[in-house]
Specification:
The chain has 304 residues and is an all-alpha fold. The chain is 81% helix and 0% strand. Helix 2 packs across helix 13. The longest helix has 29 residues.
C-alpha cells in the first residue's frame, strides 16, 4: 500500500515538474506583464457566456451517458456525477481522476463494474471520436490555409493513429483475462452493435465538442480577437489531444504551449494565445465548481 502511494506521489511530482517547465517556457516567451494585461481585457459577459456553454455541454454529456446505461438512471444524478468528475479533473488535478470518481459512484449504485467502467469509457471514446472527426472534416475545407502553414496532414495523421489504436485495443481485447476488463469489453462490443444508440450518441458528441470549441471562440472575441472559426475546428482537436496526454497537471503548460504554437502560425502573439488558453481553462474551472457542492452533498448523504 505504501509502495503504491509513493509511486502515485512520484508520478504526481513528475506531472508538476512537466507543467512547471512548460509554463515557465511559454510565460518567459510571452512575458508575464503582457499576459496579465491581456487577461484583464476580457469582457465579463463573454467569459460568463463561456461558463454557461460549458454547463450546457456537460448537461448534454449527461444525456449521452444516460443513453449508454442499461439501468434507468436519473438524468439529474448523472449530471451531478459529471460535474463532480469535472471538479476533480479541473480543480483537484492529479489527486484522483474525475472519470474514476464517476465509475466509483455509478458502481456503488448499480454494482456492475464492467458496465460502469464501460459506459464512462464509451462516453469519453465517442466524444474524442467526434472531436477528431470534426477536425478532419474542417481540415478538408481549410486545406489551402493549412497547407500554407504546413499543417495539412496533421489531422489526417492524428485520426488514422486513433483508428489504429482502437483496432488494436478492441480487436485483440488487451487485458481480457481480468474479470472487470473482460466485462468492459463485453459491454463495448454489445453497445457498438446497437446502431440507433450509436448514431444518437455520436450526434450528441458532435454538439458537445462544437460547444467546447465555441467556448474558445467566445473567449477570443471577449479579448477583442477574431480567429478563424474554421481553423479553430482543426486546431482544437490537436490542442485537446496534446493536453490529455497524462504527463502534466490537467494539461497545464502543454495546452498553453500548443495554443502558442498553433495560433502563432496564423499570426497571434504568444501573450494573446496564452490568454485565450488560460481563460478557456478558467471558465471550465468556474463551471466545474458546481461539482464541489454536489460532491459535498454526496458525502453528506453517505455519512447520514
Amino acid at each position: 500500500m505504501e509502495h503504491k502511494a509513493g509511486k502515485k506521489l512520484f508520478y504526481l511530482a513528475i506531472k508538476f515538474v512537466v507543467s512547471g517547465l512548460f509554463l515557465y517556457v511559454v510565460f518567459r516567451k510571452a512575458g508575464v506583464a503582457n499576459i496579465f494585461s491581456h487577461l484583464t481585457t476580457i469582457r465579463p459577459a463573454f467569459f460568463i457566456f463561456s461558463v454557461v456553454l460549458y454547463i450546457i455541454a456537460t448537461f448534454i454529456s449527461a444525456i449521452r451517458w444516460k443513453m449508454l446505461l442499461d439501468e434507468d438512471y436519473p438524468l439529474g444524478k448523472l449530471f451531478s456525477l459529471y460535474m463532480i468528475g469535472s471538479f476533480f479533473n479541473n480543480i483537484l488535478p492529479g489527486i484522483i481522476g474525475g472519470d474514476a470518481v464517476k465509475v466509483y459512484y455509478l458502481y456503488s449504485d448499480t454494482g456492475k463494474g464492467g458496465s460502469s467502467l464501460g459506459s464512462v469509457f464509451m462516453d469519453r471514446y465517442l466524444g474524442f471520436f467526434a472531436l477528431l472527426l470534426i477536425g478532419l472534416v474542417a481540415g478538408f475545407f481549410a486545406y489551402a490555409d493549412l497547407k500554407v502553414i504546413g499543417m495539412s496532414l496533421a489531422m489526417p495523421a492524428l485520426f488514422v493513429f486513433f483508428i489504429l489504436v482502437s483496432l488494436v485495443l478492441f480487436g485483440f481485447r488487451l487485458g481480457k483475462r481480468f474479470g472487470a476488463v473482460s466485462a468492459f469489453y463485453d459491454y463495448f462490443h454489445y453497445y457498438i452493435r446497437k446502431g440507433s444508440i450509436m448514431l444518437k450518441t455520436v450526434a450528441l458528441s458532435f454538439i458537445i465538442q462544437i460547444l467546447s470549441i465555441v467556448m474558445v471562440y467566445v473567449i477570443a472575441l471577449g479579448l477583442g480577437e477574431s480567429p478563424s472559426f474554421l481553423l479553430l475546428l482543426v486546431f482544437m482537436p490537436i490542442i485537446i489531444t496534446a493536453a490529455t496526454v497524462p504527463v502534466s497537471i490537467s494539461g497545464l503548460g502543454i495546452r498553453e504551449g500548443a495554443f502558442v504554437i498553433l495560433l502563432g502560425r496564423v499570426g497571434f502573439s504568444p501573450q494573446v494565445a496564452i490568454s485565450i488558453s488560460f481563460l478557456w481553462f478558467l471558465s471550465t474551472v468556474v463551471a466545474s465548481s458546481i461539482g464541489l457542492f454536489e460532491f459535498l452533498r454526496y458525502r453528506k448523504k453517505a455519512l447520514n
